[in-house]
């Protein structure tokens, strides 16, 4: 652990970076996870490291979709587990959703480590473990196609933070509502998903928890109303507009 002063202007970002580096050294993350994190950092810098109005709208819509779901599943990769395991566990318990491990570079050792991170955060029911049953998601090959029969495979709504484009597309094609959290509004995942939250998982998942507490008492009709009002392409365009305004402001100053 590096000694980072809380007075450093990039304190929070450096803390997260440190957490990721340590998790890599502990074998929880693949080296490529750090590259993915770096790309996220770049986009987070550009949006001002705060949750934007379009992200808030997507978070509210995602919450409505998760509350309406028959079988909601939170799919967790290494980065999400390292950065937000506690929040994932709390959200799953509020929504009565299953948690399923899904790793891009799946190795038995890394799956065990991610499972341990989730269990340490309080998870008692984790799917996608080594030795668990799985069925293939149509359109995908190899370990990426694994889906637990009681989890992602039968889910109607899946939250997939930091997913890759192919998997997001295959999940949508298999008839699921796919919610992603991805700081890059230009990624294939962002474009292919049903609801795209352009925000950092460390901010978005706590906000999903707050929103779930707020909307829990709403009628199905009201929740459906929230969903009907939302247009994902339009919302992504709003995020892109904010990014271009950021560059414009910088040019003008
Ligand atoms: P795609 O196949 O969707 O185009 P990609 O290949 O560009 O994805 P990956 O390397 O698969 O990207 O995944 C990393 C993605 O996750 C990047 O888009 C990055 O911006 C985003 N990301 C990284 N860290 C975070 C984070 N903490 N919160 C939210 N998004 C993040």
Structure in words:
54% of the residues lie in helices and 10% in strands. It has one domain: 3-Layer(aba) Sandwich (Rossmann fold), CATH 3.40.50. With 253 residues, the chain is of the alpha/beta class. It is built from ten helices and eight strands. It has helices spanning 11-25, 31-46, 53-68, 78-95, 108-120, 165-173, 188-192, 201-215, 220-228, 232-252, and strands at 72-76, 98-101, 126-127, 135-136, 146-147, 157-159, 177-181, 195-197. Bound molecules: adenosine-5'-triphosphate. The site of adenosine-5'-triphosphate has 19 residues, from helix 2, helix 4 and helix 7.
Low-confidence stretches: none
Number of strands: 8
Number of domains: 1
Q: How much strand content do the residues show?
A: 5-15%
Enumerate the distinct ligands: adenosine-5'-triphosphate
Tell me, what's the shape? Answer: globular
* Secondary-structure element series: HHHEHEHEEEEHEHEHHH
Radius of gyration: 18 Å
Predict the CATH topology: Rossmann fold
Overall average residue pLDDT: 94
Give the SSE map.
Elements: H1 11-25, H2 31-46, H3 53-68, E1 72-76, H4 78-95, E2 98-101, H5 108-120, E3 126-127, E4 135-136, E5 146-147, E6 157-159, H6 165-173, E7 177-181, H7 188-192, E8 195-197, H8 201-215, H9 220-228, H10 232-252
Helix pairs in contact: 1-2, 3-8, 3-9, 3-10, 4-5, 4-8
This protein binds adenosine-5'-triphosphate (ATP).
Features:
10 helices, two-stranded antiparallel sheet, 8 strands, alpha/beta, Rossmann fold, 253 residues, 10% strand, binds adenosine-5'-triphosphate
């Amino acid at each position: 652990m590096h000694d980072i002063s809380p007075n450093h202007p990039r304190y929070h970002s450096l803390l997260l970076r440190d957490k990721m580096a340590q998790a890599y050294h502990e074998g929880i993350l693949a080296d490529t996870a750090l590259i993915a994190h770096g790309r996220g950092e770049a986009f987070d810098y550009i949006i001002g490291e705060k949750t934007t109005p379009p992200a808030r709208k997507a978070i509210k819509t995602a919450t409505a979709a998760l509350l309406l779901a028959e079988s909601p599943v939170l799919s967790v990769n290494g980065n999400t587990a390292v950065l937000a395991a506690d929040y994932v566990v709390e959200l799953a318990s509020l929504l009565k959703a299953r948690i399923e491990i899904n790793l891009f570079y799946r190795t038995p050792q890394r799956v065990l480590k991610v499972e341990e991170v989730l269990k340490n955060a309080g998870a008692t029911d984790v799917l996608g473990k080594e030795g668990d049953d799985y069925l293939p998601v149509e359109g995908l090959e190899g370990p990426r196609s694994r889906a637990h029969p009681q989890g992602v495979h039968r889910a109607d709504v899946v939250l997939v933070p930091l997913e890759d484009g192919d998997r997001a597309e295959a999940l949508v094609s298999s008839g699921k509502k796919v919610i992603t959290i991805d700081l890059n509004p230009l990624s294939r995942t962002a474009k292919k998903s049903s609801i795209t939250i352009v925000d950092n998982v460390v901010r978005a998942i706590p906000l999903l928890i707050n929103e779930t507490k707020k909307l829990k008492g709403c009628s199905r009709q009201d929740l459906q109303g929230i969903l009907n009002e939302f247009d994902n392409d339009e919302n992504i365009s709003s995020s892109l507009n904010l990014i271009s305004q950021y560059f414009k402001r910088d040019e003008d100053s």
